[in-house]
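Fold Annotation — chain and its backbone
Encoding — discrete vocabulary of local shapes
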Amino acid sequence: MVSSRAHEDAYTAEPFLPDRGGLPALRRAAAGCRGCPLHRDATQTVFGTGNAHASVMLVGEQPGDQEDRQGKPFVGPAGKLLDRALAEAGIDPDDTYVTNAVKHFKFTRAEPRKRRIHKAPTLREMTACGPWLAAELAVVEPELIVVLGATAGKALLGSSFRVTRVRGTVLEEEIHGRPERLVPTVHPSSVLRSDDRQAAYRGLVADLEVAARTLA
């Protein structure tokens, strides 16, 4: 009998990846992913979207409530704020590909039928979902990755990542076997939660301006 711990350690999306077909094939395959338990409660897989030849790939944490319902990343308030910050920083949102480190919404409820409350994914869940992100990077081949928040940073750069230490800087790292340039910043949802939203928004724009200058 396989222990529950051993079964958890075996969580991976790898068997669900298609052999070929680009982003459309990846998106179709991800819809049936059962690589970790998060699919059980989520409405649907929320795969990345945007320009398949984008210069910039934006990587967030996981879908939120609205993303889970609509099936697209960053369609809620945080997504609208992100689009505004990108444009202000000089990055065309149409020249981006937007995705998340984890493709299913993880949440908790205080009571049945109550609002679903976001719950951060574990490192094991992020690792299980890693093959999808690796496949997206291999197809899009962005010039730059913008890392949105601590969870995305840990998924890409390891558990020691701290967004406060490296935000607004250009990192050069090997990610899923590819040399990549990355600019970390905060997740736009943290701006919405900030006590000083205006200052937090200015900080996000300043970090994205670093990304824009790196692409120039």
